[in-house]
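[Meeting: bench + compute handoff]

Bench side (C.D.) handed over the final construct sequence. Compute side (W.E.) agreed to return the predicted structure before the next meeting so the bench team could plan truncations. Sequence as handed over:
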Amino acid sequence: MTDASPRRRVAPLAPEERRTAIIAATLPLLRAEGLHVSTRRIAECAGVAEGTLFRVFPDKAALLAAALAQAFDHAPTVAALRALSGVPDLRFRLRTAVKVLGQRFRENMPLMIAMRSGGLPAGVSVPDARDGFPRVVDALTELIAPDQHRLRLPADAVASVLTSMIMFSNRVDNLPVEEVVSVVLDGVLYPEVKEEPAC
């Protein structure tokens, strides 16, 4: 027996929601396949007809620019760091910050490599990702500053060292989060064991 009741159509997404959904589907594809992927492939991954892309974005260049601008937007990272400001334990704050920043670097590294190796497709322009990076370092400095009295270096210097360590660990051998924080706070030497003087 078949169901004779009429099927209800799924309500179409509002224009801004459709735009957000297309960008969300585009970014993983750009990271996996590069910046010269076809709009047909993007539409497949977004689950829409290719023509729908061009009802939301005027052309492919506009879609890629919007996706890359979102990928390199520092605001969500800054907000995530500032959300840790009330946590009293410095090591916990820094471990969480390293996870947040490490994930950002890992996600964006394929995009940066693609832009350096193949360049941006014609007509695509994005803000320089380095322009907003000082805001991330400032947010990290604010996170460290409450414990300045415990540190030999200024909080901003510690923040710079920590971001350098995160970038290094993601490019080379992906050091564990705990090791990154330990190296920055404790150095790389094992604690010295003082020998008791012989009688």
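W.E. noted at the follow-up: The chain has nine helices and no strands. C.D. will use this when planning the next construct.
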